[in-house]
Amino acid sequence: MNQLNFAMKAQRAAALLVLALIPVTALAESAWVTDQFEITLRSGPSTSNEIRLMVRSGTELEVLQRDEDSGYSQVRTSGGTEGWVLSRYLMREPSAREQLTNLTSQLSSATTRGSSLNQQLGAVRSEYDNAQQRIRTLEKEKADLETELADIQRTAANVLSINQQNKDLNRQLSDAGIRIDMLEQENRELGSQTNRYWFMSGGLVLVVGMILGLWLPRIRWQQRRSRYDRF
Length: 231
Prior knowledge:
By secondary structure, the protein is an alpha+beta fold. About 65% of the residues lie in helices and about 15% in strands. It starts with a helix and ends with a helix.
């Protein structure tokens, strides 16, 4: 009796799995945001355009066009908001976390209703294990990205520190230039003052020489005259 109930449950699970795997025809291509982090929905295909929306991981978007040169894709949200996102953050299928949730729900529903064959149940469990493996891989990639982001932040902080040091050095250089200009001005003034001193000294020497030139002959004449008076 238990085996019959289990067989009926397996058949129902298989039917649900087949219905879930039937492709749905859409007018536009669908893509899902990668389940690593939130991404920005911008007004244009570059980081210089404004941010219109922050799109959470696992969100389904309608892809309108892809720009291979810029690496952006134009998308539309379920609410009708259009914008551009980086193409590398889009996946062609729901995230592994959502697939795991759906598979878990299917597996739980199949078990509750008593459906699915052993073979189909094994396939579901295999998909479940694959989804878990993908989640572990994505979590590792997320940790690597967080480490890389921390390195980038440290580098940016170092760049800001270097820029501040450059500003301080430029300010000190400007102050030093001002002091050099002042010293050069003082040097020129001292040079001009020295020239004036030399000019005045030369004039004084010339005057003294003229006085001596006039006074010494008179002294000699008086000495000669005193000699003649003795005779």
